[in-house]
Amino acid sequence: MPAMIVDFQHHFTPRELIKEDPGDRLVLHYDALGAPSYTVHSLLYDLDEHVRMMDLAGIDAAWLTSAAGMCADLATSRLVNDKASQAERDYPGRFIGAAHAHPLGGAAAFKELARCRHELGFQGVVITSEFDGKFIDDPALELFWNEAAKLDMFVFVHPALKLNHAQQFDSYDTARAVGREFSLIMAAIRLVNSGVFDRHPKLTVHMAHLAGGIASMLARIRCFQDKEFWGTADNQRHGRKAQKDLDHYIRHNLVFDTAGFAGGIGAIKAGLCEIPASRIVFATDYPQEIRKREPVRDFVNELRRLGADGERILSGNVGLLLKEPPATERTKLEERML
User: Fold this and answer.
1) Rounded CA gap, 94 and 310, in Å?
2) How far apart are the C-alpha atoms of 337 and 169, rounded to whole Å?
3) I need a surface site. Which of 23, 99, 217, 271 has the fewest CB within 10 A?
Protein backbone atom coordinates (compact mmCIF):
# COMPACT_ATOMS: atom_id res chain seq x y z
CA MET A 1 0.00 0.00 0.00
CA PRO A 2 1.44 3.44 -0.89
CA ALA A 3 2.37 5.73 2.02
CA MET A 4 -0.65 7.71 3.11
CA ILE A 5 -1.86 9.48 6.24
CA VAL A 6 -5.04 7.89 7.55
CA ASP A 7 -6.98 9.29 10.49
CA PHE A 8 -7.95 6.12 12.34
CA GLN A 9 -10.39 7.77 14.75
CA HIS A 10 -12.61 10.04 12.73
CA HIS A 11 -16.29 10.25 13.62
CA PHE A 12 -19.53 10.97 11.82
CA THR A 13 -23.23 10.61 12.54
CA PRO A 14 -25.70 10.18 9.69
CA ARG A 15 -28.17 13.07 9.64
CA GLU A 16 -31.02 10.54 9.78
CA LEU A 17 -29.95 9.56 13.31
CA ILE A 18 -30.02 13.09 14.73
CA LYS A 19 -33.57 13.77 15.89
CA GLU A 20 -33.48 17.55 15.84
CA ASP A 21 -31.53 19.85 13.58
CA PRO A 22 -28.77 21.29 15.80
CA GLY A 23 -28.16 24.24 13.50
CA ASP A 24 -25.29 26.24 15.00
CA ARG A 25 -25.93 24.86 18.49
CA LEU A 26 -24.28 22.16 20.56
CA VAL A 27 -26.85 19.67 21.87
CA LEU A 28 -25.49 17.89 24.93
CA HIS A 29 -27.04 14.55 25.94
CA TYR A 30 -26.87 13.21 29.49
CA ASP A 31 -27.00 9.63 30.72
CA ALA A 32 -29.48 8.22 33.25
CA LEU A 33 -27.26 9.36 36.15
CA GLY A 34 -27.09 12.92 34.87
CA ALA A 35 -23.54 12.74 33.55
CA PRO A 36 -22.71 14.41 30.21
CA SER A 37 -22.63 11.66 27.60
CA TYR A 38 -22.46 12.89 24.01
CA THR A 39 -22.37 16.24 22.24
CA VAL A 40 -24.29 16.52 18.97
CA HIS A 41 -23.56 19.23 16.39
CA SER A 42 -23.91 19.68 12.66
CA LEU A 43 -20.23 19.07 11.94
CA LEU A 44 -20.84 15.38 12.64
CA TYR A 45 -22.62 14.98 9.30
CA ASP A 46 -20.95 17.77 7.30
CA LEU A 47 -18.51 15.59 5.37
CA ASP A 48 -17.68 18.43 2.99
CA GLU A 49 -16.12 20.27 5.93
CA HIS A 50 -14.35 17.08 6.99
CA VAL A 51 -12.65 16.97 3.61
CA ARG A 52 -11.70 20.66 3.80
CA MET A 53 -10.07 20.01 7.17
CA MET A 54 -8.24 16.97 5.79
CA ASP A 55 -6.97 18.98 2.83
CA LEU A 56 -5.56 21.68 5.11
CA ALA A 57 -3.98 19.15 7.50
CA GLY A 58 -2.56 16.92 4.77
CA ILE A 59 -4.65 13.89 5.72
CA ASP A 60 -5.24 11.53 2.81
CA ALA A 61 -8.12 9.47 4.18
CA ALA A 62 -10.22 9.00 7.30
CA TRP A 63 -11.58 5.78 8.78
CA LEU A 64 -15.22 6.54 9.59
CA THR A 65 -16.82 5.34 12.80
CA SER A 66 -20.11 6.47 14.31
CA ALA A 67 -20.96 6.65 18.00
CA ALA A 68 -24.60 6.07 17.08
CA GLY A 69 -23.70 2.68 15.62
CA MET A 70 -21.37 1.41 18.32
CA CYS A 71 -22.88 -1.68 19.96
CA ALA A 72 -26.24 -0.60 18.54
CA ASP A 73 -29.30 -2.50 17.35
CA LEU A 74 -29.22 -4.15 13.92
CA ALA A 75 -31.23 -1.51 12.06
CA THR A 76 -29.03 1.32 13.32
CA SER A 77 -25.85 -0.63 12.63
CA ARG A 78 -26.93 -1.37 9.09
CA LEU A 79 -27.88 2.26 8.41
CA VAL A 80 -24.51 3.50 9.68
CA ASN A 81 -22.66 0.90 7.60
CA ASP A 82 -24.57 1.85 4.46
CA LYS A 83 -23.92 5.56 5.05
CA ALA A 84 -20.19 4.91 5.54
CA SER A 85 -20.15 2.96 2.28
CA GLN A 86 -22.00 5.84 0.62
CA ALA A 87 -19.36 8.25 1.91
CA GLU A 88 -16.68 6.10 0.27
CA ARG A 89 -18.48 6.46 -3.05
CA ASP A 90 -19.31 10.15 -2.68
CA TYR A 91 -15.75 11.12 -1.73
CA PRO A 92 -13.50 8.66 -3.61
CA GLY A 93 -10.32 7.88 -1.73
CA ARG A 94 -11.09 10.14 1.25
CA PHE A 95 -13.19 7.96 3.54
CA ILE A 96 -12.85 4.33 4.61
CA GLY A 97 -15.82 2.62 6.21
CA ALA A 98 -15.76 0.80 9.53
CA ALA A 99 -18.16 -2.03 10.31
CA HIS A 100 -20.69 -1.55 13.09
CA ALA A 101 -22.23 -4.73 14.51
CA HIS A 102 -23.25 -5.51 18.07
CA PRO A 103 -20.83 -8.13 19.45
CA LEU A 104 -23.68 -9.79 21.35
CA GLY A 105 -26.18 -9.46 18.51
CA GLY A 106 -26.06 -13.12 17.56
CA ALA A 107 -26.43 -14.57 14.08
CA ALA A 108 -28.07 -11.46 12.59
CA ALA A 109 -25.25 -9.19 13.78
CA PHE A 110 -22.62 -11.61 12.50
CA LYS A 111 -24.39 -11.76 9.14
CA GLU A 112 -24.18 -7.95 9.01
CA LEU A 113 -20.50 -8.14 9.94
CA ALA A 114 -19.89 -10.58 7.09
CA ARG A 115 -21.78 -8.27 4.71
CA CYS A 116 -19.51 -5.42 5.75
CA ARG A 117 -16.45 -7.53 5.06
CA HIS A 118 -17.41 -9.27 1.84
CA GLU A 119 -19.82 -6.83 0.17
CA LEU A 120 -18.71 -3.44 1.47
CA GLY A 121 -15.01 -4.28 1.78
CA PHE A 122 -14.66 -2.98 5.35
CA GLN A 123 -11.55 -4.26 7.10
CA GLY A 124 -12.27 -3.39 10.74
CA VAL A 125 -15.17 -3.40 13.18
CA VAL A 126 -15.79 -1.02 16.08
CA ILE A 127 -17.02 -1.89 19.57
CA THR A 128 -16.79 -0.08 22.90
CA SER A 129 -14.69 -0.88 25.95
CA GLU A 130 -17.78 -1.84 27.98
CA PHE A 131 -21.47 -1.99 27.16
CA ASP A 132 -24.81 -3.41 28.25
CA GLY A 133 -23.47 -4.05 31.74
CA LYS A 134 -20.70 -6.30 30.42
CA PHE A 135 -16.94 -5.90 30.17
CA ILE A 136 -14.80 -6.82 27.21
CA ASP A 137 -13.51 -10.08 28.71
CA ASP A 138 -17.00 -11.50 29.23
CA PRO A 139 -17.15 -15.09 27.90
CA ALA A 140 -20.27 -14.13 25.95
CA LEU A 141 -18.02 -12.19 23.52
CA GLU A 142 -16.08 -15.27 22.45
CA LEU A 143 -18.34 -15.81 19.44
CA PHE A 144 -17.60 -12.25 18.36
CA TRP A 145 -13.83 -12.75 18.63
CA ASN A 146 -14.22 -15.94 16.59
CA GLU A 147 -16.11 -14.07 13.86
CA ALA A 148 -13.65 -11.18 13.72
CA ALA A 149 -10.73 -13.60 13.45
CA LYS A 150 -12.50 -15.71 10.83
CA LEU A 151 -13.26 -12.63 8.72
CA ASP A 152 -9.70 -11.32 9.19
CA MET A 153 -10.98 -8.02 10.58
CA PHE A 154 -9.25 -5.88 13.16
CA VAL A 155 -11.33 -4.74 16.13
CA PHE A 156 -11.34 -1.10 17.16
CA VAL A 157 -12.10 -0.56 20.86
CA HIS A 158 -13.57 2.90 21.36
CA PRO A 159 -14.14 4.19 24.89
CA ALA A 160 -17.51 3.33 26.36
CA LEU A 161 -20.18 5.91 25.65
CA LYS A 162 -21.95 4.82 28.82
CA LEU A 163 -19.96 3.36 31.70
CA ASN A 164 -21.33 0.31 33.47
CA HIS A 165 -20.57 1.86 36.87
CA ALA A 166 -20.39 5.62 36.68
CA GLN A 167 -21.28 6.61 40.24
CA GLN A 168 -17.83 7.94 41.12
CA PHE A 169 -17.87 10.19 38.03
CA ASP A 170 -20.89 12.15 39.24
CA SER A 171 -19.50 15.66 38.71
CA TYR A 172 -17.08 17.85 36.77
CA ASP A 173 -17.72 15.91 33.51
CA THR A 174 -15.24 13.29 34.74
CA ALA A 175 -17.04 10.34 33.14
CA ARG A 176 -15.95 11.69 29.77
CA ALA A 177 -12.66 13.23 30.93
CA VAL A 178 -11.17 10.26 32.80
CA GLY A 179 -13.81 7.55 33.30
CA ARG A 180 -13.74 6.49 29.67
CA GLU A 181 -9.93 6.41 29.73
CA PHE A 182 -9.94 4.18 32.81
CA SER A 183 -12.35 1.92 30.92
CA LEU A 184 -9.85 1.65 28.05
CA ILE A 185 -6.98 0.78 30.39
CA MET A 186 -9.14 -1.92 31.96
CA ALA A 187 -10.18 -3.20 28.53
CA ALA A 188 -6.53 -3.68 27.51
CA ILE A 189 -5.75 -5.57 30.72
CA ARG A 190 -8.88 -7.70 30.39
CA LEU A 191 -8.16 -8.57 26.75
CA VAL A 192 -4.65 -9.78 27.53
CA ASN A 193 -5.24 -11.62 30.79
CA SER A 194 -8.46 -13.31 29.72
CA GLY A 195 -6.51 -15.05 26.94
CA VAL A 196 -8.28 -13.52 23.94
CA PHE A 197 -4.97 -13.25 22.07
CA ASP A 198 -3.82 -16.69 23.16
CA ARG A 199 -6.95 -18.15 21.60
CA HIS A 200 -6.71 -15.85 18.56
CA PRO A 201 -2.99 -15.15 18.09
CA LYS A 202 -3.46 -13.38 14.74
CA LEU A 203 -6.14 -11.04 16.03
CA THR A 204 -5.33 -7.31 15.98
CA VAL A 205 -7.11 -4.99 18.40
CA HIS A 206 -6.84 -1.25 17.88
CA MET A 207 -7.09 0.59 21.20
CA ALA A 208 -8.32 4.18 21.14
CA HIS A 209 -6.58 7.02 22.97
CA LEU A 210 -3.29 5.16 23.50
CA ALA A 211 -5.44 2.70 25.49
CA GLY A 212 -6.54 5.45 27.83
CA GLY A 213 -2.98 6.70 28.34
CA ILE A 214 -1.94 3.29 29.61
CA ALA A 215 1.77 4.08 29.17
CA SER A 216 1.90 5.98 32.47
CA MET A 217 0.58 2.89 34.26
CA LEU A 218 2.46 0.13 32.44
CA ALA A 219 5.25 -0.27 34.99
CA ARG A 220 2.67 -0.79 37.72
CA ILE A 221 0.53 -3.09 35.58
CA ARG A 222 3.58 -5.22 34.74
CA CYS A 223 4.42 -5.45 38.43
CA PHE A 224 1.00 -6.84 39.28
CA GLN A 225 1.36 -9.48 36.56
CA ASP A 226 3.69 -11.26 39.02
CA LYS A 227 0.96 -13.26 40.70
CA GLU A 228 3.31 -15.20 42.95
CA PHE A 229 4.87 -12.01 44.32
CA TRP A 230 1.47 -10.51 45.12
CA GLY A 231 -0.03 -13.72 46.45
CA THR A 232 -2.86 -14.05 43.94
CA ALA A 233 -1.55 -17.03 41.96
CA ASP A 234 -4.12 -19.39 43.48
CA ASN A 235 -7.05 -17.01 43.08
CA GLN A 236 -9.23 -18.05 40.15
CA ARG A 237 -10.07 -14.51 39.09
CA HIS A 238 -7.16 -12.34 40.21
CA GLY A 239 -4.48 -14.91 39.53
CA ARG A 240 -5.43 -15.41 35.89
CA LYS A 241 -2.97 -14.13 33.30
CA ALA A 242 -1.98 -14.66 29.70
CA GLN A 243 0.45 -17.28 28.45
CA LYS A 244 3.12 -14.70 27.57
CA ASP A 245 4.28 -11.51 29.20
CA LEU A 246 2.26 -8.33 28.71
CA ASP A 247 4.72 -6.72 26.31
CA HIS A 248 4.43 -9.60 23.86
CA TYR A 249 0.82 -8.63 23.18
CA ILE A 250 1.69 -4.92 22.99
CA ARG A 251 4.17 -5.74 20.23
CA HIS A 252 2.13 -8.35 18.37
CA ASN A 253 -1.62 -7.85 18.89
CA LEU A 254 -2.36 -4.36 20.16
CA VAL A 255 -2.28 -1.16 18.11
CA PHE A 256 -2.68 2.21 19.80
CA ASP A 257 -3.91 5.51 18.35
CA THR A 258 -3.11 9.15 19.06
CA ALA A 259 -6.68 10.41 19.48
CA GLY A 260 -8.23 11.42 22.76
CA PHE A 261 -5.89 14.20 23.88
CA ALA A 262 -7.27 17.13 21.84
CA GLY A 263 -4.10 17.25 19.76
CA GLY A 264 -1.79 17.48 22.76
CA ILE A 265 1.66 16.30 21.67
CA GLY A 266 2.80 15.82 25.27
CA ALA A 267 0.54 12.80 25.65
CA ILE A 268 2.08 11.24 22.54
CA LYS A 269 5.61 11.85 23.80
CA ALA A 270 4.68 10.26 27.13
CA GLY A 271 3.18 7.27 25.33
CA LEU A 272 6.38 6.74 23.35
CA CYS A 273 8.27 6.19 26.61
CA GLU A 274 6.56 2.79 26.91
CA ILE A 275 4.80 1.99 23.63
CA PRO A 276 6.93 1.41 20.50
CA ALA A 277 6.29 3.88 17.69
CA SER A 278 5.87 0.81 15.49
CA ARG A 279 2.55 0.08 17.28
CA ILE A 280 0.97 3.55 17.15
CA VAL A 281 -1.27 4.92 14.38
CA PHE A 282 -2.42 8.46 13.71
CA ALA A 283 -5.89 9.54 14.86
CA THR A 284 -7.56 12.82 15.81
CA ASP A 285 -11.03 12.22 17.31
CA TYR A 286 -12.33 14.85 14.86
CA PRO A 287 -14.91 16.40 15.00
CA GLN A 288 -15.45 15.83 18.71
CA GLU A 289 -12.37 16.67 20.74
CA ILE A 290 -11.09 18.78 17.85
CA ARG A 291 -13.63 20.70 15.75
CA LYS A 292 -11.55 23.17 13.77
CA ARG A 293 -9.20 22.67 10.84
CA GLU A 294 -6.15 24.45 12.20
CA PRO A 295 -5.62 22.39 15.40
CA VAL A 296 -5.60 19.20 13.30
CA ARG A 297 -3.03 20.72 10.94
CA ASP A 298 -0.92 21.78 13.94
CA PHE A 299 -1.16 18.28 15.44
CA VAL A 300 0.13 16.75 12.21
CA ASN A 301 3.01 19.22 12.19
CA GLU A 302 3.86 18.46 15.83
CA LEU A 303 4.00 14.76 15.01
CA ARG A 304 6.34 15.46 12.10
CA ARG A 305 8.68 17.26 14.52
CA LEU A 306 9.14 13.94 16.35
CA GLY A 307 11.25 12.82 13.38
CA ALA A 308 11.29 9.18 12.36
CA ASP A 309 8.86 8.17 15.12
CA GLY A 310 6.40 10.83 14.04
CA GLU A 311 6.55 9.85 10.38
CA ARG A 312 6.01 6.23 11.32
CA ILE A 313 2.96 7.17 13.35
CA LEU A 314 1.56 9.41 10.61
CA SER A 315 1.91 7.03 7.68
CA GLY A 316 4.31 4.16 8.28
CA ASN A 317 1.98 1.98 10.33
CA VAL A 318 -1.16 2.12 8.18
CA GLY A 319 -0.55 -1.49 7.15
CA LEU A 320 -0.97 -2.67 10.73
CA LEU A 321 -4.71 -2.17 10.29
CA LEU A 322 -5.43 -1.86 6.57
CA LYS A 323 -4.05 -4.97 4.92
CA GLU A 324 -5.72 -4.09 1.61
CA PRO A 325 -5.94 -0.79 -0.27
CA PRO A 326 -9.07 1.26 0.54
CA ALA A 327 -12.07 0.42 -1.63
CA THR A 328 -11.55 3.16 -4.23
CA GLU A 329 -7.87 2.34 -4.56
CA ARG A 330 -8.71 -1.35 -4.87
CA THR A 331 -11.24 -0.59 -7.62
CA LYS A 332 -8.65 1.38 -9.58
CA LEU A 333 -6.19 -1.49 -9.31
CA GLU A 334 -8.80 -3.98 -10.50
CA GLU A 335 -9.71 -1.75 -13.46
CA ARG A 336 -6.07 -1.53 -14.51
CA MET A 337 -5.80 -5.32 -14.42
CA LEU A 338 -8.76 -5.80 -16.82
Assistant:
1) 22
2) 56
3) 23
Sign of CA pseudo-dihedral 220, 224, 228, 231:
positive
pLDDT of residue 148: 98
Mean pLDDT across 94-103: 98
Note the helical H segments in the chain.
Answer: 47-57, 74-90, 106-118, 142-150, 174, 180-193, 196-199, 209-213, 218-223, 227-230, 246-252, 265-272, 293-304, 308-311, 327-337
pLDDT of residue 23: 87
Chain-centre distance for alpha carbon 170: 25
CB-count burial class (<10 Å; 0-12, 13-18, 19+) for 216: middle
Amino acid in the structure at residue 8: F
Q: Which of 24, 37, 101 is nearest to 65 (CA)?
A: 101
CA pair distance 62, 57, nearest whole angstrom: 12
* Local structure of residue 206 (DSSP, 8 states): E
Task: Dump pLDDT digits (tens) for 166-199.
Answer: 889 989 999 999 999 999 999 999 999 999 999 9
Sign of CA dihedral 48, 263, 219, 179: negative
Q: What homologous superfamily does CATH list for 6-337?
A: Metal-dependent hydrolases (3.20.20.140)
